[in-house]
Fold each of these.
Amino acid sequence: MQPIIIESDDFGMTIPISRAIITGLKTGVISTTNAQVTSPHFEMSAALAQQHGIMAMGLHLVLDKDRPISQPLTIPSLVTPAGFCHAYQTLQTHPKQLAIADVKREFQAQIDRFLASGLQLTHLTSHHFVATLTPEIYAIVLELAQTYHVPVRNETAHLRPTEQAAYLLLMSEYAVLTTGTLITAQQTPYLTPQEIKRQLTQKNLVGTPVILSHIGYLSAELRHKSRLTTNRLAEFNALKTLKQTNYWDQFSWQLTDYSELGAK
């Protein structure tokens, strides 16, 4: 059996998203998730998870859009005059303006808030792949992963080959486990069973693949917080279909989580 991780991002963004992810975990539709602690719904979502026996998950590091955990005055390069994190488009066009000390302070604050919930930290990911905005930011993520003895999701695949070299070099310098091929919506607006199957049958898969999904139930609040709305229901249904048709067993895939990654 070949190990595969099915992950849903954004636990805690809204309560309906958290409830859908809990259902997905309990029914074996997904195998792990990651929490967005900058959301005001994180604490309630964490309590719901623990009520359902879910005691561990990853952390989704955030640098865009939400209010930061740190006091805005202590991380001036990361926030707008109103005290919110910059829009992702701003981060993309001006990544070098982010002070590394500010990024490190905010990421540490997010880890502290996560651990204060009573959940166990299993791995690190990043919202909109902000971990790979610059090699310097990626180094902070790897350093934190090494400190807390957790793996990181390999999010370098979306970078151009000429950009990847610096990140791969960094990865070789830290005792941090990483995942392999990242399965995302490429030829479709959102993940479909066909798109997932297409990518999983390619011959260039490496390491433990991660299917990156966004599942959730809809709410009025979600429409103001994310461009991914009905897509979340569609991806939930796509993953349910693969489970119900026994796709994973038929093609010798074994659902697993970050605790099962092999040695670096």
Note: The CA atoms of residues 38 and 197 lie 34 Å apart.
Amino acid sequence: MKRFLGCAAALGLVWAAPALTETTPVPGTPAHPSAPAALPTILHAGKLLAVPGEKVVEQATVVTRDGKILTVRSGYLDAAALGLPADTAVVDLRDRFVLPGFMDMHVHLSSGGSARNPMTRLKEGPEYFAINAYANGYRTLMAGFTTVRDLGSPGDSLFALRDAIRDGIVAGPKIIAAGEGISPTNGHADAHGLRRDLMEAQIRPGVCDGADDCRRAVRNAIKYGADVIKVHVTGGVLDESDAGTGQQFTDEELRAIVDAGHAMGRKVTTHAHGKSGIDAAVRAGYDSIEHAMWADEESLKLMKQKGTWLIPTVWPITWVGDTPEKVRQGPFKNLAPNSLAKLYQLGDQPKKMVRAAIRLGVPIALGTDNGIAPHGTNGYEMLEYVEAGMTPMEALKTGTVNAAKAGGVNDRGSIAPGLAADIIALEGDPLTDIRAVLSVDFVMRDGIIFKRDGKAGETGL
């Protein structure tokens, strides 16, 4: 059954992984909306890592139906042996390494390219950012990331895209969306560097001050569509504020935010750079810490003790540059002086931090903060983890089973009966060479094939 027919298929274009940039062409709107494939599909895997962290099985069969994993069996079984109709479609992945679709717990799909310019927000509405997010989401899906957590986008742009993907209107990864982040006045998610009248004219629904006001902001975020609550406990590097990267919400405000989010069944995660903010968020019961750039051993040991997930976002540091010389030659060389000063100070500290976290056994789930680095380059985060001391298997876990646990995504992250049929295939063996994660040849999400034999566009069987 043919599900999605995009411009790429119509023009015979081939998506060449992993050489993705923010100008890579993206297929247009598919011709036919689609629900998960009702008919069964048989996949024959040369090597199958059904549950990262467990044993690789040589020569395996996976059957999907109605968007779910129906069965996982040893050997190459045909339709008759499986009790399926004789004309059941078979996907030959016998020369491929098959594993669950990757998951990224920290992206900004609406950002990147011209959308990164703060002036764009003053000129364009949420529709513009939703379309940009669609293009970036498609790139991410083609890189093998079938689930992402978007932690900050303007207005309702990501809620609309999330729902359109869910309903089969457009192709993309499953999205867990935060919408606008929760921030104190003049915090990381507030407006900076503009004239007073322009800053005051911008609607920032997540900006709050005081415990009661912050409870209101969290409840409103959930009311209007947030799947997860994203909080800005500290200042950030790339904003134009000169208020630093230390703790900005009070302990009382932090407790009010996390209590309000948990009371309504949402995970609560936080952007945190400075040690004081990291420690305060961990003590307050936040589910995960994003970045944790200036976490020291005391902070990391506290995270391990509390079972707080670390989402390190190391890859963008390599992309932007971890020395002043690299920054001045890179894509962020024209940042505002306040931002550049913070970036220079940051240096390679995130890489030192993640090495310490690995050594201490802090639970780590994959997050890239892409929107800073180009969308579709998410797999490079696993290369960073291996360079920092993880084994390839441990790195694969961060982007599958660990990410599923950190994000509360209970139906994905492994290949097992009853779970969502999110399956990818690599050209090489990532346990031998982790760079194989950059060569994704096959992508299935919810039982729908979006990429096959390295080609994107027309999908399905």
Note: Residues 1-35 have pLDDT under 50 and may be disordered.
Amino acid sequence: MTDSVKHIDVIVPTFCPDERLVALVKKLESQTVRPDNIWIINTLTDKSDKKNLPTPNDFVHVLNIGQYEFDHGATRNLGASKSTADYLLFMTQDAIPENYTLIENLLKKFDNDNVAVAYARQIAYEDDGLIERLTREFNYPDKDQTKTFSTKKVLGIKSCFCSNVCAMYDRSLFLSLGQFPKNMIFNEDMIFASKVINAKLAIEYASKAVVRHSHNYPLSKLFRRHFDLSVSQTQNKALFAEFSSNKEGVKFVKYVLRELWLRREFFLCIKFIVQSAVKFAGHQTGKLYRILPLSVVVKLSLNKNFWRNNLRQLL
């Protein structure tokens, strides 16, 4: 990257946003490297409350789409189509920069022209509990990492781990690699990341670029989320078979249980075991989605509109 000024646009898909979107926009406005534009792609519903949507101006742009138009890949591509910036920063409405150097620290990773993507570290909100904090610690450690084709065999599926909760993309490389896949129920970021690795470009994990982001899902929502994750992996079976899992799920469970046990959080150990069982059940059920009745699949899925949208395309 040269010393010339680089232009960055932020793209945020939203759905019934709460006050965290307000906080996100304020933090983006005050970054040491300020973005040129924030593009909010807002999904409208009959019950949409617009009170947390910012008023459009020369900096913040709001584009409303219908409920049946949302797609994890295509909606983000729509936001990208509005931009002429050098870099695209994709974020979610519930991710808040921890400080004012988020964009600066992500942008530094593009000093190497081979870098296509840089994604941020996530730390949990305090009120989401110890299990969520440990989950983020495992997936987002405090050490930078560069992932390339040469690290593929060592890292396995971690090679294409990348999160659009907060990830910056070189726009020219993003376009040349075909953008995000359409008709995606989940995992548009990881699938694009696999293209990056196979194109022998680099993905950077920027641990000094930090956002607050976590969830306190009930068991029913955990099941549905992992059902959708499994559907995505099943639909892209050849791709995920190409990247060894290296038993990452087992490593994660061992890590969290060990930390909880050492802290004598025995009740949380039981809670985590139950959560892990529910995630596993959702994952195993998702593998069978093709043989389940559509009505059952829709009930089990978190992203119900995905099935309705695709059904409309078939009719």
Note: Residues 142 and 179 are 29 Å apart (CA to CA).
Amino acid sequence: MSTTPETGFVRGLDESQYHADPRLSSHRLGIFKRSPQHFRHALEHPSPSTPAMIFGSQLHARVLEPQRYAERMQIVDMKSKSAKAYKDAVADVGADWVALAHEAQQIEDMRASVIAHPTASKLLEDCSNLELSAFWEQPTWCSQSGEETSVQMKARLDGVMIAGGGKPGGTIVDLKTTRDASPREFGKAVHNYGYLLQAAVYVTAARACLGRDDHLEDWRVVLIAAEKEAPYAIACYEISGMALRKGMAEVEDLLSRFATCQLSGEWPGYTDGIEPVVLPPWA
């Protein structure tokens, strides 16, 4: 069985082992962005995976780890999760590896669309490294005192293409499920779900685990957006340049604030005073 290393990449690490590791991830950093208090509560009271999260994990396994999917996935030929057969299967292997027949068919249809898409399929084909779990120590500083310190971090990368021929950088590929992969709507999802922050963490992970001192501009993150409803349309979007720099600036700021909380042991909420109302841009 794979174990989590102190630093570096590990292949084939079970998703449950990855999630059990206490290190800081882009997901946990997103919770910290809301407030340190929310982060601390989430760490001490972890929430179970939602149906959407489970479905996304199953699609990832089918597309990126087909052998593991075939070996572990249990498909229950029932229409409801209240059926005894479904509950028995969940009790046996856990909800992450059980799907109703119509869910499994949806996963097959989405995978077929990904494979049929010329750009998406080529991106995955060119990734010699799939489903990599990364663990590293990230240098940062305390936002309050300026003291230099570090944060133990982790990330799980769908696919990595390292530039060849002595060139710096590379490409990170990330498979996303979505209801609407159109440019306008998926752009909203990039903002709402913190994909810029996530992309910056992925690049940070790759550079740290590969021991690279290349520039941020040498990297790009390509999102494969897969719609969850027929006709299961696919679109590919690139995060690089200015967008990636914006995400990296946010990560650096959050890490310095996180280091402050870590060193002080204090995890505050929103504010102790009265703040002005912040209206949305469209109001």
Note: The chain has eleven helices and eight strands.
